[in-house]
Write a structure and sequence with these properties.
Helix content: 25-40%
Strand order of the largest sheet: 1-2-3-4-6-5
Strand content: 25-35%
Order of helices and strands: HHEEEEEEH
Distance between the termini: 32 Å
Radius of gyration: 14 Å
Number of strands: 6
Number of helices: 3
Structural class: alpha+beta
Shape: globular
Number of domains: 1
């Protein structure tokens, strides 16, 4: 299944996903995406660094955000207004950030995604 097909039934989700994907792809030109069930995995050099998914209907955790961008960091940072943070391991924090349909990726979330990307690149060095 492609990302286009995954979000085809929900125009707001489809539009938000492609706005985020196009922004990420403009920065990480070698990035690729892969669809797993209801999640899109974004990879660079075959290393996943970002996941995009749509909250289940009725899930108000992310208010009315059509998509959520998830990524991991090796340290904890102050979360963004629509972010949830979970300690996945003693040295790993997962962030799940709701992306508002009209705003796309804000600079704060984009800088955190950049740090997650750098962490993945550093792991392979």
């Amino acid at each position: 299944m492609s990302a286009k097909n995954l979000f085809a039934d929900e125009p707001a989700v489809h539009d938000a996903f492609f706005a985020v994907w196009n922004k990420i792809r403009s920065i990480y030109t070698e990035a690729e995406l892969e669809v797993f069930e209801e999640t899109v995995v974004i990879k660079d050099n075959n290393r996943p660094f970002c996941w995009i998914w749509a909250p289940a209907p009725g899930n108000d955790t992310y208010e009315d955000c059509p998509i959520v961008v998830s990524f991991g960091l090796n340290y904890k940072v102050q979360p963004h207004r629509l972010c949830r943070c979970v300690q996945a391991a003693p040295d790993r924090w997962m962030y799940h950030c709701g992306i508002e349909k009209d705003l796309g990726l804000c600079d704060t979330v984009l800088s955190l995604i950049d740090r997650a990307h750098k962490d993945k690149v550093d792991e392979t060095s």
